[in-house]
Amino acid sequence: MSSRRAQAASLGDIPPARSRHQGRRSAVALADGLAVVGTADGDVLAFDIASDGPPTRRWRHETEGDPSVVAAVPFDGGVAVGERSARGQVRCHDADGGVRWSYDTRTDLGAAQKKTRFLLPFVAALAADGDRLYAAARRYERRTDADGDDVRHFESAVYAFRPDGSVAWTYPTDASPIALSVRNDRVAVAYNRCPGDHQHGLVVLDAADGSPRWMWDPGTDGQRRVGDVALLDEGAVLSSHGDYCGYRLNESGSERWRVPLATPTDVAGDTVYAYPNHVRATDGGAVFVTGNTYPEEGRQTDARHPNEHTAVGVSLDGERRWSAPVGGFASGLGAAGDLLAVPGAQHFRDRDADAHALRLFDIADGAVGTLETDGVVTAAAVDGDCAVAVEEPVIYHDDGRERGAYRLHRLAATSGVADPHR
């Protein structure tokens, strides 16, 4: 497995990340020889990555207000982006950076309860097929219920946008959407929290009109439900936050198999678990990626779940093939075909800067390459033989040293082997 440096370009200056996760604030997509980066200050930058030298900036779109761009996907010859901002905007850029259309999800979700980052309207996921762009957006707030208790509440909607920006349909709920997957004529929506009337962690919608085809739920206690979903030609693979397992479902929603990933485990007298946050599935198999260790009691623990921060490869028959560390909390995945890029951000308990990296995996065979970084890697994308990653600077509270910079890395990944010196 290779472990070397890549070509890089500056993305400017941002406040460094800290020990605690602050949520996604960057995004990147690859489209027609460009790497398009959504930044923490709300601007969108496009870099030419076709040459052998460092990425060269092609254009920059400056954004008003104080947003961060947290999602990006190629769409209709351009790139669509989604914000965490007061407006919660979904926007489509032409290949030259011009804004083709925009839509403010605040119109449907309502204004933020306070001007606090986690209370702002948030475009949690984007996905596209040949005809439409799909967006999942949510707004979170705290409410007092009839018993006087402080409770979580979400306003959310899934949108289907036509190429001209008009809305074909919406699917609103009072749950928290976290991921989308589109395949053939279906749109799958994963809900990671269901504190209200909507009690289904997975909903599969008809792509034409947004009507529900089937639903699934882990059936566990509490609000936690599903972390991610990947549609197959028939059925789906998903990561369950309810019981910390991976599932393959048939087209009707019936269970085909279940794989324990980071279920509660006794470590030196402390029972701990970790959420499986991401999944990628193709005809070649599936990969699940787990997150941070948490104790069953309280929030602090010295124990580490043996399967935290781990990528697990599974065949489509449910057989475990391989596992490998990913170094820290992954805020998302980059993927194309059977190649998977996992950005490793903070390990907030151990804060091990030596683990900062982008790691590349083949779905069937496991680890194939590593790009080591000084800062934390927070976003990645893959297209053909090219992978890109966004690095952010970080300062850990018990160290005080600023590591890394805000920059875009480009590396080649050809025939299952990562080659940073393309």
Summarize the structure.
By secondary structure, this protein is mainly β. Helix content is 1%, strand content 55%. It has a 5-stranded mixed beta sheet with strand order 1-31-30-29-28, with no helix packed on it. Strands 2, 32, 33, 36 and 37 form a 5-stranded antiparallel beta sheet that branches.
What does this structure look like?
The protein has 2 domains: 2-25 and 143-419, Lipocalin (Beta Barrel); 26-142, Thrombin, subunit H, CATH 2.40.10.480. The protein is globular and about 50 Å long. The chain has 422 residues and is an all-beta fold. The chain is built from 1 helix and 37 strands.
Low-confidence stretches: 415-422
Helix coverage percent of residues?
A: under 10%
Strand order of the largest sheet: 1-31-30-29-28
The number of E-state strands comes to 37
Give the overall pLDDT as a whole number: 93
Helical stretch count? 1
- Give the helix/strand class: mainly beta
Q: How many structural domains?
A: 2
Please tell me what the overall shape is.
globular
Strand content: over 45%
Q: Which CATH architecture of the largest domain? A: Beta Barrel
How far do the termini sit from each other? 16 Å
Q: Calculate Rg over CA atoms.
A: 20 Å
Main β sheet profile: 5 strands, mixed
What is the name of the CATH topology of the largest domain? Lipocalin
- The CATH class of the largest domain: Mainly Beta
Domain Pyrrolo-quinoline quinone repeat: 41-216
Protein name: PQQ-binding-like beta-propeller repeat protein
Region (Disordered): 1-25
Organism: Haloarcula salina
